[in-house]
Amino acid sequence: MRVGFVNTSGRQNEKPFRIDPLGALYLLTILERDFGDRLELDYTDLRGVAEDSAIYHVPERDVYLHYITTPEIAEIQRNVARIRRSYPKALHLAGGPHANIFPEESLKTFDAICIGEGEKILPQMIRDILDKKLQKTYRETGAINLDEYPYPLRKYLPKSAIVDTGMLTRKHEALLGTSLLVSRGCPFNCHFCSNQYKGPTRVRAPRLITEEIEYLKREYGVQALLFKDDQAIHVNKELSRSVLEAIGKTGMLWRGQSRANGIHPDSVRLAKESGCVEIAVAIESVSPKALKIMNKNIDLAKAKDYFKVLRQNDIEIKLLLILGLPGEPKDIAQQTIDFIEETQPSNVSLSILCPIPGSAIWNDPAKFGMKIDTSVPFEKYMFAFGRFDGEEKAPHFFEYEKVTPFGEGMSMDEIVANHEKVQAYLRDRKINF
Fold first, then answer.
1. pLDDT number for residue 260
2. pLDDT digits over 338-361, tens only?
3. Distance from the CA of 134 to the CA of which of 23, 172, 286, 389 falls in 20 to 30 A?
């Protein structure tokens, strides 16, 4: 049986090949392990392909697999419709955040969906297809043990789609790099995020982390790594040590992300020794009130202390910020600029608040004094994660009530103006990411 994954164009990203399809590669690797030559497996990579030309790149398969996110669902639906016209007998299976949050809607497009983590469910779906008893909905409620599954083989993509330069800081931008994930889940529950659908935090065994990195070095000449994990340096000191020592054995340079508070200085030192050159720190807001409302329990003074520790260890700082959070003061743009001036990060990624389906602000907007504009197409939600260009105007995802539970609400026009003011400041200093 011929089974193929199909992705999307990634058109919202200036460099879509920086977003590696690790989840799809993971699942294809598991199917290869479980079914061997009973399946003919491949991956149709549509990154960088114009949508109206996508169908010319899709080979005929018996089963197509799709990973669906809410901002990409419209493009995926159009792709599925085109594939059905060309190959009407094929089945289409889907999983991912959108299937978890909107299962009934998803079943209007796909023959079957997977709710929960797919490592156990997808092989069962394939077995049921072979036995001609495919169900509509498959559900996995538990959290898988990552050590029971192989690391994702990259052989389903050409080398040119796996490694690229510019993965690290400007100083190291010539190095060939790629991305990887060695953990899953997030222990925190910020109200603007839907990370709870990832399940509890789990980290692969150190031996398996080292094995995957050595595989990337040996097969693809990788010299630099971008860790896509929610935490590359963990708050748990012993957990952090085991991960960082596993990375350090490989002699690779890398960058990743960490919490703003609670990281032990010894973990930072070990991160540097293991090859870390940059850490992205998700402050999200310079307003303590907004942070508290969003359940982002960090202390900004302690975050500044953490920045000092990173600098003492010669690790560059990338700052992650969101504007438009409930409870922000009117002068949040200037406060944000002042914070950046004081802390001097190397890069800043600035987003505007987007009510992501599955997040607390999506599930109960009235609690935050918000009215979500349901007329805004989900494709526009990609603005929260990427830009078509640096001058793109933010959509009006929502409006605050004039009086919210947290005081007077800003209009969306004011929020967009604040976003543009800070973006202009970042562009002038060439630290916008």
1. 94
2. 999 999 999 999 989 999 999 999
3. 23
Asked whether residue 311 is domain-assigned, the answer is: yes
* 376 and 324 share one domain: yes
In a domain, 249, yes or no: yes
Whether residue 375 sits in one domain with residue 236: yes
Instruction: Tell me the two tokens of residue 409.
Output: 């609400």
Query: Which residues does the chain have with pLDDT short of 70?
Result: 12-14, 196-198, 383-392, 433
Whole-number pLDDT of residue 389: 57
Q: Rounded CA gap, 219 and 212, in Å?
A: 11
In tens, the pLDDT along 68-90 reads 999 899 999 999 999 999 999 99
Number of domains in the chain: 2
pTM of the model: 0.93
